[in-house]
């Protein structure tokens, strides 16, 4: 795929052809809506371990996302090592202290008020796994020469969506966390300069006492997010 050889277009019949009837489609779309409506961002995790293979399968699902020219411009780091999680937490909290102490600006801090966040990030050590998603701004051949990637933010955003849906489907809770800036993750996780950290996902079982902010239940109605042209 990422060789220097010229790859030709060779169509093959669509594998895994799906052909649902309208009622089956309706039921399937409703069932998935119901499943995804039960996804909530949580900040309180059980510390109980989650098997590594579950995390790996969910990341493999993320790797099934469509991407610009099928370059798959993403990489993932999965961390359960307690020392490394503690280091990431310390580094993230250092950034967050700056953010909440004024770096964010008044408007941003006000927007976060109903979410109830602050510079303390215990989920980064409580959650049994952290998944850090990196975007590959450009690709590199083994000899270090570069090739271009296309639609990188779009592609990685879609992969993150697949990943969050896969984790939720597996019964796991997720917090999408984006300390600002996140460059420290390149050093900590030994990723090359071509890669940009996009987000940290804290992953695990929701704590028994987990809460969500009331405003998180307020979702825009379909009439507000959709216009139909038939
Ligand atoms: N990264 C900070 C701030 C933050 C920003 C947004 I936009 C959020 O939706 C939530 C938090 C933090 O994690 O606290």
TrEMBL record:
Keywords: Flavoprotein, FMN, Oxidoreductase. It comes from the Bacteria. One of its GO terms (molecular function) is oxidoreductase activity. Residues 37-205 form the Nitroreductase domain. This is Nitroreductase. InterPro entries: Nitroreductase (IPR029479), Nitroreductase-like (IPR000415), Nitroreductase/BluB (IPR050627). The keyword Oxidoreductase applies. It comes from Shimia aestuarii.
